[in-house]
Amino acid sequence: MANNTCPQCGAPVPMRSGGMPYAVCGYCQTVIAREGMRDIGKAALLPYDISPIQLGTGGAVDGARFTVVGRVRWGWADGAWNEWLLQLSDGTTRWLGEAMGQFQILAEREDVAARLPADIALGFTLDVDGQSLTATDIKTVTCLGAEGDLPFPTPADWQVESVDFRSPTGAALSVQRDKVGVSAYVGRYVELPELRPSRLRAVEDWVMPDNLAETGR
């Protein structure tokens, strides 16, 4: 794991992934462009949460091993959730969405983003890979903080429109839109044990699922 130095505070900034263009300093929350190790602003200080996932957590998905290399935390008036960036052994990435004990595995899909209308209303349906997905939640959210290596910068004042789609089969679609553009992430709901996670964080009052505890993870 290569290290570079934060241009703001001089702390080491580990390189956890092979090609992410941005990183967040774990000491002073400076958002850093990897090319030239340039200071491009500040991320908000991550609030405490009770997630068992952390940077360095490992596991397996879609036939490949993964390592958690980054996180973005989003919030709105009634709550917050995490989006963990997974670096897979086959060179691809996934996002692990985590909200109120539920998990989603998602992959960015530019082809799906290109099919979205300018405005999305609750109840709007979209067919993706043979699945009919319905918009069930639309809200404006704010980036509450970030850490690790990331594919985009995470300024402290960043707000996006977030649209969640669901299907009866467990398929999921997450859409994020801001003044720069729109991104779409397609995947499915999963149970944490399905990912065969390792290096989970011990969290007070969080009970490890039996089928993880039995393996010693």
Quick tags:
217 residues, mainly beta, eight-stranded antiparallel barrel, two-stranded antiparallel sheet, 2 helices, 49% strand, globular, disordered C terminus
What can you tell me about this protein's structure?
With 217 residues, the chain is mainly beta. It has one domain. Helix content is 5%, strand content 49%. It has helices spanning 110-115, 210-213, and strands at 3-5, 12-14, 22-24, 30-33, 38-42, 58-61, 64-76, 79-88, 93-99, 102-108, 125-128, 131-150, 159-166, 171-177, 182-190. An 8-stranded antiparallel beta barrel has the order 7-8-9-10-15-14-13-12. A two-stranded antiparallel sheet has the order 1-2. The longest helix has 6 residues, at 110-115. The radius of gyration is 17 Å and the shape is globular. Mean pLDDT is 92; it is low at 213-217.
Question: Concise description?
Answer:
This protein has 217 residues and is mainly beta. The chain has helices at 110-115, 210-213, and strands at 3-5, 12-14, 22-24, 30-33, 38-42, 58-61, 64-76, 79-88, 93-99, 102-108, 125-128, 131-150, 159-166, 171-177, 182-190.
Tally of DSSP β-strands: 15
Order of helices and strands: EEEEEEEEEEHEEEEEH
Tally the helices: what do you get? 2
| Structural domain tally | 1
Taken from the alpha-carbon principal axes, the silhouette is: globular
Terminal residue distance: 23 Å
What's the alpha carbon Rg, rounded to whole Å?
Answer: 17 Å
Class by SSE composition = mainly beta
Spans of at least 5 consecutive residues whose pLDDT stays below 50 are 213-217
Mean pLDDT rating = 92
Spatial strand sequence of the major β-sheet: 7-8-9-10-15-14-13-12
Q: Main sheet?
A: 8 strands, antiparallel, barrel
Helix content: under 10%
Strand content bin? over 45%
